[in-house]
Each structure stands twice: as C-alpha cells, then as structure tokens.
Write a structure and sequence with these properties.
Number of strands: 7
Largest sheet: 7 strands, mixed
Radius of gyration: 16 Å
CATH superfamily: P-loop containing nucleotide triphosphate hydrolases
Strand order of the largest sheet: 3-2-4-5-1-6-7
Number of domains: 1
Strand content: 15-25%
Distance between the termini: 23 Å
Structural class: alpha/beta
Shape: globular
CATH class: Alpha Beta
Order of helices and strands: EHEEHEHHEHEE
Number of helices: 5
Length: 180
C-alpha cells in the first residue's frame, strides 16, 4: 500500500505522516534522506526506528534490503516512511552533473519504491517554479513533478498539506489528466 504526502516546505508533512503512520501501523522504519545532517523527529513509539539513508544509490539499497529481509506475513503490520524524496533528488542533483546518471538512479529508486511489499509512506514536496529559473532548476522541478505524478498514479492514498491542514486528494475525487 503506497501513501504519499506532499506539500510545501514547512507545511507539516513529516508531523502529519508520522501521526498517520502511528494510526495504521504498530511498527515502522523512518528513513531520513539527503545530504544534510539528519533531523530525526520524535517517532510514534519504541517500535519505530530511524535510519539516515543519505543520498545516491544508498537509499535504493536500503529500501531493497528492508524489502528483502522483511517477513511478508507481517507486511501489513509495519510501515516504511521515506522523508523526503525531494531531499534525496536535490542531493543527487548537487552530487553529479551527469543528468542521465541522476535520471537512472531516480528510476532505480522508483522501481524499489513501487515493488516494496508492505505499507510505504513517501513524503515529497509539491513543486513550484520561479519566474526566471536556471536550467538546472527547470530540469529539477520538471523531474520532481514527474516523479510525484508517477507516485500519485500508484498511490492508494495521497495527502496535500497546506499550513498544517491535510487534504485527502484521492477522497476528493481528484484525478490525473491521463485518467480521463
């Protein structure tokens, strides 16, 4: 079961995601991503653990390893929280100038996310452009928006956070342009 939580910076995505996760799973793993110092929030219970997965292929490897080592019979009792996909992609853009390499790493991560057996909650930022973006900003924004659309297509639940308020987009009957 894939759940996505999206919104702007500081909108309350992580706080909402952890509270939501605690309501549907007794145990879980919180994966902090990116190339920054990890800020691990207060986890819902002692049955949750935190891992700083960093950037690059390491996140894909961590998700694949968790998926491989997990007991399929207990998949509905645990949740994997990825916070945040945007931070991971931004770190990847800063780490390499080879956009094709970054694209292939993103596809490998998407494949790992979409093949995950169990409850998966992915936190990502809603992408907004600027009036005069650099070429790198334009490419990053377009790719992140594309990844968000791919996740949305596969997500059972999708929430948009605005100033701490969660909007259940799937319940609202929102649909992708391609689904008409």
């Amino acid at each position: 079961m894939l759940i996505t939580v999206t919104g702007g910076i500081g909108s309350g995505k992580t706080r909402f995601a952890l509270k939501y996760a605690a309501g549907i799973s007794r145990e879980g793993v919180y994966l902090s991503t990116g190339d920054h110092d990890p800020v691990i929030p207060e986890l819902p219970s002692a049955h949750y653990r935190a891992i700083h997965a960093g950037n690059g292929q390491h996140l894909t490897e961590v998700i694949t390893q968790i998926n491989r080592e997990s007991n399929l019979f207990l998949a509905d009792q645990r949740i994997l929280i990825v916070d945040s996909l945007t931070s991971w992609m931004a770190a990847g853009f800063r780490a390499t100038e080879d956009l094709n390499h970054q694209r292939s790493e993103t596809q490998l991560l998407l494949d790992a996310l979409l093949s995950y057996q169990g409850k998966l909650l992915v936190i990502t930022n809603e992408m907004h452009g600027t009036l005069h973006p650099t070429e790198e900003e334009r490419i990053f924004t377009a790719r992140m928006a594309s990844v968000n659309r791919m996740l949305q297509i596969h997500a059972e639940k999708m929430y948009l956070l605005v100033s701490g308020l969660a909007i259940d987009l799937k319940r609202q009957g929102m649909r992708n342009e391609d689904e008409r």
